[in-house]
Amino acid sequence: MSRKLQVKSAVLMKKRKLRLIVAACGVVVLGLWIFGVFGGRTSDAARHRAWGRTGRIWSELRLINKRLPAGFVRVFRLSRLEQEYEDRWCAERDALVASEYFTNVALAINNQSGRTARCGALLRTPARRDQTDGGSHSQGSSGSR
To answer: Which of 16, 89, 113, 123 maximizes the CB count within 10 A of its CB?
Structure first.
């Protein structure tokens, strides 16, 4: 190979490596942005959105842990990751309660057994369509929605 071709090849390799490094950095920044590392969580509304995002990730991890084989979960330590997101979710919730964005109250429900019985009876009776809707059969048996 000629010296000129070697130099040109070396320059192209350096450009290719530089592009790969820039692309990798872009992917890392995008991933951090998606997971909420960047962003000023100064307002309670922003912290509430972050709390919801953490809850969704925790829920997905819990679902993944239930569906994958135990050996796979153990090798990749997914249960530990799930626990970390659960702890983060609880901490964010407690911070929102402390900032009085959420209110931590206990509600007393009077006559809960009667209410439960009425709700159960409503769920057991088939829902009927209006006569103006074109039919009088129940929605559950129609098969289409």
So the answer is: 89
pTM higher than 0.85? no
Q: Given the structure tokens 């997971």, which residue do they identify?
A: 35
Residue ranges making up the domain that contains 90: 41-105
State the total domains in the chain.
Answer: 1
Residues in the chain: 145
CA distance 36 to 54: 9
In-domain check, residue 86:
yes
Tokens representing 138?
């129940």
8 Å CB contact between 115 and 109? yes
Q: Which two tokens stand for residue 79?
A: 């249960």
Q: Is the pLDDT of residue 57 over 70?
A: yes
Q: Is 118 exposed, middle or buried (0-12, 13-18, 19+ CB in 10 A)?
A: exposed
Give the Cα separation of 28 and 118 in Å (integer): 53
Residue 12 scores a pLDDT above 60? yes
DSSP three-state, residue 117: helix
